[in-house]
Amino acid sequence: PRTAQADEAPRAPLSLAEAVDETLAHQPQVRQSREKVSQSDADVRRAWSSVLPTVSAQATAAVRKDPVIFSSARFDGEAYNYYTATFQLTQPILVFGLLSGADVTDKARDLARLELEVVERDTTVQVIQAFYQVLLNRRNLETLRAVEKIQREGVATTQRRQSIGRGQLIDLLQARTQLALLEPKIEQAESSLKVSAQQLATLLGREDPQILALRGNLLPPEEGRVAE
């Protein structure tokens, strides 16, 4: 059977702009605010429809045949089509209550749109912070692992020199101590990366942060737009 991880594994690395779009598309609070705006737009249309005039039309078609006994029989008494059409214009009496109600719905719509802008802005800020936190923690871990590799090579070199009498034991012990002090830092960096990846995955609505691949760098996005 396929697993959730297997289903999500083929996903391409995620850019910051894609992360923002994906989060805004599924976040419950954002979706709720968008639905509220849609409902407010519908309320405004209904409110103003009760104030503005309405036009209705009705048309009928029938077949008639005038008696030939009358000299005025149309079409010599033959059957003919007969059409009628009526138009009706209805204008509600403009009382203060109707206009006031329409104005209230307008203000409610404006408020709903403002709330949506605030929610989308706050959510975008959270995604940006989480995204760059993952990149920062990943860079920190990569740096520590690079230092670890260098120090392991240094320990091996010092050990070889000490074994042939060209190095002192104290140098070897110091190199091993530096390497040992680096291990908890790497473990802490790995833990921080997992935590930040989980936070970003939660915003994105993804279950497994282990398959979360990002495309980006630590350069700040251009002013006024989210980096691609």
Could you write a compact summary of the structure shown?
By secondary structure, the protein is mainly α.
Strand order of the largest sheet: 1-2
H/E topology pattern: HHHEEHH
Strand content: 5-15%
Total number of strands? 2
Radius of gyration: 38 Å
Report the uncertain regions: 1-9
Q: What do the pLDDT scores average to? A: 77
Which percent range fits the helix content? 55-70%
CA(first)-CA(last) distance: 36 Å
Based on secondary structure, the structural category is mainly alpha
Task: Write out key terms for the chains shown.
228 residues; mainly alpha; two-stranded antiparallel ribbon; 2 strands; 10% strand; disordered N terminus
Q: Would you mind describing this structure in some detail?
A:
62% of the residues lie in helices and 10% in strands. By secondary structure, the protein is mainly alpha-helical. It has a two-stranded antiparallel sheet. Helix 2 crosses helix 4, helix 3 (28-49) packs antiparallel against helix 4 (96-163) and helix 4 (96-163) runs antiparallel to helix 5 (169-204). It is rod-shaped and about 140 Å long.
Task: Chart the SSEs and their pairings.
Blueprint: H1 4-8, H2 16-26, H3 28-49, E1 54-64, E2 80-90, H4 96-163, H5 169-204
Antiparallel strand pairs: 1-2
Helix pairs in contact: 2-4, 3-4, 4-5
